[in-house]
Write a structure and sequence with these properties.
Length: 164
Amino acid sequence: MGLTAEAIVELFRADARARKELAELLVSEPDVRLAIVNAVLRDVATKSDIEQLRTAMESRFEQHRSATKSDIEQLRSELGREVEQLRAEFRRDIEQLRSDLRREVEQLRSDFRRELEQLRTEFRREIDALAREIDRLYKLVIVSVLGILISIANTILVRLLLPP
């Protein structure tokens, strides 16, 4: 069985000392070292790369910040409208309650006036009935007093006119 690339890799993976020697051999060759450095440099970030990344990130940040500000302003506007709607509904409810209360108060006043008028009417009827009763009693007393006076006058006249 022949030696495959995979088997070679496994052998280097298992032997750290052999790996180190291979690396030293590769680095000591100028062409190989240049190829490795160039490959590594492609992955290394430069100042301009970092500046471009910073500019791109700042641009994204500004976009997100602007979008967030826009979202916040939109939310603020929506909340403002909702608050105004609630205030308007609250005012309508208060006005409805005032109207209902006024109606109730007027109904109570009307009921009170009606009951007061009924009481006055009953009171007047009772006063009229008492006045008739007093008038009847007055006439009875007058008749009684007249009867007593006639009786006294009769007794006096009988004594005066008839000798004893």
